[in-house]
């Protein structure tokens, strides 16, 4: 309890360290309120501005959150406790379908692409002062975006989707600002938002993406940014269809000052068309990662957006890493131009496994979700029990707590490593562990 822990310090850094140490040790529990700034300042004999500075530091580190008149409190999940740590270690003999990795058999061999990049570098060495984005890479990326109806905008390159989203959020928002996020949603994003000192506002969704009523509620509540996954939503597989996109765009158009970020990480592994929301607001960004199609270790994503947003991102990027390796960019150019990956075949392979599992679960009376991508989400009444029973049956699945804020419980299964022979046994195990659940509701 707070009464049992005395915050100490005379300087802002000392006060912040005292609180952070207490959170780390458990002396200050998740969700526990902190004293009002003036009250703590009086108790410590310091200026209220000193305590305000300490609290600001703690918000920026993701240790505490501020909710207006309700004051500040320890985050329910401090930034030091990443959702990725909520996992089940698969012992020998247990199949791991929890990690969310692509099927290595569907990834291209990279030696030709890297060799082509090396040859290009030998002819035109990458040096300081050159453009951060390879011209051919930019042209190909922009052509792909144009083909999918993404509004015109400059192209930047980041080290993956999460890097892009972090840079865009930091370019526009300040600690304390609210961000609408999908719930259930990508665990890394749910960790990132509060770690930046921002306040996540959950939006429920169905197989067609965020529910319009949920987005409307978030916008009316004053969120400064909205993050939407266009296709292959993690963990549910949701994909924004044409009708839903129209509804969401109409709502966003009434709040043009809101920052819109779209994550299209399913590009080249999903056969559903993109229905972008980009342009519905004045500030927007859309990011496409190469991780799922070409391999997670190829740390590269395409970022486009309005000119101001991209300029802010690239300006700050110049003061840090400078640019993403043009060798990697050239490797991706080779992958694109050589058609090293048959995107339709990859999408079909994941789709057949995913659809087969969803159908097998339905045949056993278990509702599941998986409209696109490589994951299947199964709502369950008792997440911990289901995970434990599945582990006992020889299957390690991802606990839903990695992806949830206030959404009902569930588990995620990745179909990447499954064969046709696996579908029946894993469906039997899930049916035994999870029991019947509604098929069309995430919450």
Structural features, described:
- The chain is α/β, with parallel strands linked by helices.
- Helix content is 40%, strand content 14%.
- The protein has helices at 12-25, 37-44, 48-60, 111-123, 135-147, 161-172, 187-195, 212-220, 242-253, 291-294, 307-318, 326-337, 343-363, 383-392, 420-434, and strands at 64-66, 72-74, 95-96, 155-158, 178-182, 199-203, 205-206, 209-210, 225-229, 259-263, 283-289, 301-305, 375-379, 395-396, 398-399, 410-414.
- A seven-stranded mixed sheet has the order 4-12-11-10-9-5-6, sandwiched between helices. The chain has a three-stranded antiparallel sheet with strand order 13-16-15, covered by helices on one side.
- The chain is globular.
- 48% of the residues are buried.
Strand order, main sheet: write it out. Answer: 4-12-11-10-9-5-6
Question: Major beta sheet, specifics?
Answer: 7 strands, mixed
User: Radius of gyration in whole Å, from Cα?
Assistant: 23 Å
The CA-CA distance between the termini, in Å, is: 32 Å
Helix/strand/pairing class, anyone?
alpha/beta
Helix content: 25-40%
What's the mean pLDDT score?
A: 92
């Amino acid at each position: 309890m707070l009464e049992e822990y005395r915050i100490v310090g005379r300087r802002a850094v000392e006060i912040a360290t005292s609180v952070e140490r207490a959170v780390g040790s458990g002396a200050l529990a998740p969700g526990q309120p902190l004293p009002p700034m003036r009250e703590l300042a009086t108790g410590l004999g310091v200026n209220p501005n000193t305590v305000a500075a300490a609290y600001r530091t703690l918000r920026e580190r993701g240790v505490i959150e501020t909710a207006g008149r309700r004051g500040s409190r320890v985050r329910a999940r401090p930034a030091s406790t990443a959702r990725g740590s909520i996992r089940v270690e698969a012992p020998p003999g247990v199949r791991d379908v929890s990690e969310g990795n692509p099927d290595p058999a569907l990834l291209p061999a990279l030696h030709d692409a890297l060799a082509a990049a090396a040859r290009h570098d030998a002819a035109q060495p990458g040096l300081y002062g050159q453009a951060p984005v390879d011209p051919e890479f930019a042209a190909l990326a922009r052509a792909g975006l144009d083909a999918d109806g993404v509004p015109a905008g400059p192209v930047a390159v980041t080290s993956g989707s999460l890097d892009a989203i972090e840079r865009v959020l930091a370019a526009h928002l300040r600690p304390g600002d609210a961000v609408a996020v999908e719930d259930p949603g990508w665990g890394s994003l749910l960790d990132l938002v509060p770690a930046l000192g921002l306040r996540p506002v959950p939006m429920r969704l169905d197989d067609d993406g965020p529910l319009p009523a949920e987005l409307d509620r978030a916008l009316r509540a004053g969120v400064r940014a909205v993050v939407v996954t266009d296709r292959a939503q993690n963990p549910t597989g949701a994909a924004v269809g044409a009708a839903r996109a129209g509804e969401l765009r109409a709502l966003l158009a009434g709040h043009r000052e809101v920052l819109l970020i779209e994550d299209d990480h399913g590009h080249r592994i999903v056969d559903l068309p993109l229905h972008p929301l980009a342009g519905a607001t004045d500030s927007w960004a859309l990011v496409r990662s190469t991780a799922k199609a070409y391999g997670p270790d190829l740390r590269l994503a395409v970022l486009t957006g309005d000119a101001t947003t991209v300029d802010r991102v690239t300006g700050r990027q110049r003061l840090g890493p400078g640019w993403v390796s043009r060798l990697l960019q050239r490797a991706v150019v080779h992958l694109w131009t050589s058609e090293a990956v048959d995107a339709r075949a990859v999408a079909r392979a994941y789709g057949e496994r995913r659809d087969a599992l969803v159908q097998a679960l339905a045949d056993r009376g278990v509702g599941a979700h998986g409209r696109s991508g490589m994951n299947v989400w199964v709502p369950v009444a008792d997440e911990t029990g289901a995970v434990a029973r599945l582990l006992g049956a020889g299957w390690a699945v991802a606990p839903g707590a990695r992806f949830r804020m206030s959404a009902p419980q569930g588990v995620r299964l990745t179909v990447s490593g499954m064969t046709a022979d696996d579908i029946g046994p894993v469906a039997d195990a899930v049916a035994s562990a999870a029991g019947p659940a509604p098929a069309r509701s995430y919450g």
